[in-house]
UniProtKB/TrEMBL annotation:
The keyword Ribosomal protein does not apply. Gene3D superfamilies: Jelly Rolls. Belongs to the pirin family. This is Pirin family protein. It comes from Epilithonimonas mollis. InterPro entries: Pirin, Pirin_N_dom, Quercetinase_C, RmlC-like_jellyroll, RmlC_Cupin_sf.
Amino acid sequence: MKTVYHKSDSRGYANHGWLKSHHTFSFANYHNPERMHFGVLRVLNDDFVEGGMGFGRHPHRDMEIISIPLEGDLRHGDNMGNSGIIKKGDIQVMSAGTGIMHSEENATEQPVKFLQIWVIPNKTDVTPRYDQMDIEEKSVQNDFQQILSPNADDAGVWIHQDAWFNLAKFDKDFSKDYNINKSGNGVYVFVIKGKAKVGDQILDERDGFGIWDTESFNLEALENSEILLMEVPMELPG
C-alpha cells in the first residue's frame, strides 16, 4: 500500500474577496509541483462564495467537472440550455468534451460552500453533457453511498472515466472496509466534516489522504463524520 497525506492547512489558498478557495492540487495562481494531481483527479477546490456573487460564464474543454454543494444554493447556466439551482444534497456533473460555456453563481444573499472537482476523462472530444441529481434522498448512514460511477445505469451520476465516488456518513467509532472497484485505481479520501482514521493515519476536517497499490482499506470515524471517497485510475490517459 502506498499513501500520501495532505493536511488541510497545507493546501493552496486564494482570497478574491467574493471567493475564498482552498486548492488541494495546483490551480490558477497556486502551483506546487508535488501537488499536480492524484492519478486522474486533477482539481479539488474547497470554495466559499459570498452572497450574490459567483463565476461568470467561462469555457471548459475535455474535462469531467463535478460540483458538490455543502451549504447554500448555486444557480447554474450554460450554452447547452441548462439552467437551475443546485443545493446541498445535490451533485452536478458536466462533461466538457468539445467545449462548454457555463456560469455558477450564488443564488441567495447567504454564503455558498461547495467542492469543485475535476477528473481527467478517458476519452476526448465527446459531446458535452450536463446532469444533476438529488443524492440526499438516497442517503445512508454507516455505509458507503455511491454518488458517481462510469455507468449511466448505476447509482449516482456518471462520467467518462473508470471512477467511483462514495459518501460515507459514519457515526463515531463506526468502521468499514472499502474495496477497490478496479485494479490500478487509488482512492483519495477527503474529510468534509468530523475526524477519521485510515490505517494509522488520523484525518481531521478537510484533510486529504490518497491510498493506492492496495485492494482494500479500513475507514474508521473517530467522531460523527462525513467523508468523500474518490476512487480514480492512477495512470494518466495517453
